[in-house]
Amino acid sequence: MMELTVLNTLGAAVSIFVLNYAVRRYTSCLANAPQPTSRNFWIQYLGFVPPPHDGEDVLSKFLIEVGQDQRQSPISVCFSVMGRPLVLVNTLKGIKDVLIDGQAKNKKLGPCVQRGDLIRRIHSLVFGGPSINNTVGEDWAWRRHVLLPPFQPRQLVPKLLPYVGEKATEVMTLFGQHALQGTALEVDNVFTDLTMNVINYYLYGRRDLNFDIVGGRANLKNEHLKLGLGFQSPEAWLPFGLNETTWAQRSYRPSREMLKDFIRDSLEKAEEEHKRLQRSKVGTGSATYHCVAAAGLDSGKYDNNREDLVNDLLSLTFAGYDTTAHTLSFCFSELARHPDIQQRVFEEVRRVLGPPPVAPESITADKLAQLPLVNAVYRETLRKYPAVVFIPVHVNRDTLVDNTVVPGGAEIWCNIRGLQMNPDIFPNPNEFNIDRWLAPPVTEASNTTSDSTYNDFDSFGENSKSNIDGKHTTETQYRFPDITFTLGQHACLGKNLAILELRTMIALTMNQFSLTLKPGNIIETKIVLTTKPKNGVWIHFDERNDLKNI
Ligand code: HEM
């Protein structure tokens, strides 16, 4: 009898489940949209990113296959086991509709789309509180308003370029030692330390932070990694608030607490310094600004809850180091396999920077703006290896995406990886070809000269309307907008900082060394929130003998 009741209940539950799926799936306005197939259960039926593992990068493979399949244009749909649509947007016009028009403010109804549900949950879990990376609406807008100015080129470049130049010069010394010894160096590790140093310096405006709190400067990245991997533990997803418990968060909470202690301490130091500077400026009338933390403090927005600022600084560190570091690593891996490109970039850089050693203070924004080939190298790297392979958004209400209505409640993945590997726009997409990013000779002058030192940082004017019209062909690929930092309201806050680091590192290295990849080092991607080189990147450096000007 008991068994019968259990069976009946189970049967009823299964029927409700199947009915719910069938109704949602077959009455959806997307019922007839093309459906991509994936051999991966997580993607196909849950609309989830598959958990990272050491095998093939199935997520990237899936996104590329979808992006290259004309039948799946402009959108294609996976239905989750709950019958919820996950919409892949595979055209530039569609991505623009979602990220620019969809995220735009609408006073009455709010934006059509907002940051994806799952990514918000992951960020909340990891950071343990609201931050610029997991909030939406007004809660996000005031943070963005306060934190954006220090990341604009006019503030960022004069304050940060000397430090970036200095740190990059130290890295050149390390490369030089390996060149002398003839040993290969794993550069991803080096770049992670570099970008971590840079973001910490810029956030707090000083070098003497108390790194002992996190077990030493070099351990900072390890604690961030542990924190970032926190979302992988099954307990972190337990329902009814169980995932909030210390027990459920035991694999990553200690790292988070340690990192927040470090931030609180750094913030105090930044505040003392900021007050001292303000006192010394009394009477000048201008508010002093000297670092991102100070901009936050000055705004008064964090006065009632200093922990909000701690969370924002944690998420800025998190967003600001590994994306740029891995991009540099992929970039070096490609340069190392393309001596012809190295030679062209070397000649360009040498003309502008002169022979090494290049004094850090002699590296100026003006000089960096005269390096179109260096730009082309980082653009091509981000095309082939976008740090963020898709942009997830949640659809609040029906939204038109490249002439198809996507219903409210759906989740969207803007398929950055797939679109940038589409041969209709980028012929031979697997080929690392920097010429894609060079304007034809007629307009070359506009690429090589710059009226304004800082405007050029957002190179190629990629966000100008004409470039986002969605009509890109192989002839106009050089004008393809930079979608790798996303578009619209949530455009990457640290884009200019990342570009500053990328340009400086590529230029200084090409000026002094030639690179080769260590034999046997296979370059493959792995997605753990961002795109990483799975096997690391091992480079042999050779000092260039030609120490002349060109
Ligand atoms: C190559 C380097 C980088 C790439 C490719 C990159 C890419 C991106 C992308 C695609 C997003 C949107 C993510 C989403 O909507 O889910 C984003 C957002 C963001 N990025 Fe970056 N990023 C890079 C470096 C940085 C750096 C150096 C910082 C330093 C502060 C930073 C801070 C942020 C922040 C705060 C956001 C959230 C912006 C908002 O929602 O208003 N990023 N980035």
The shape, in one word, is globular
| Largest β sheet strand count, sense and barrel closure | 5 strands, mixed
Helix fraction by DSSP (H/I, runs of at least 4): 40-55%
Query: Can you count the helices?
Result: 18
From N to C, what is the helix and strand string?
HHHEEHEHHHEHHHHHHHHEEEEHHHEEEE
Mean pLDDT: 89
| Strand coverage percent | 5-15%
CATH class of the domain at 143-388 and 426-479 and 486-543: Mainly Alpha
The secondary-structure class comes to alpha+beta
Count of strand segments? 12
CATH fold category name of the domain at 143-388 and 426-479 and 486-543: Cytochrome p450
Radius of gyration: 24 Å
Distance between the termini: 92 Å
Which ligands accompany this protein? protoporphyrin IX containing FE
Strand order of the largest sheet: 1-2-8-5-3
Question: Can you describe this structure in just a few lines?
Answer:
The protein is of the alpha+beta class and 550 residues long. It is 47% helix and 9% strand. The longest helix has 31 residues, at 306-336.
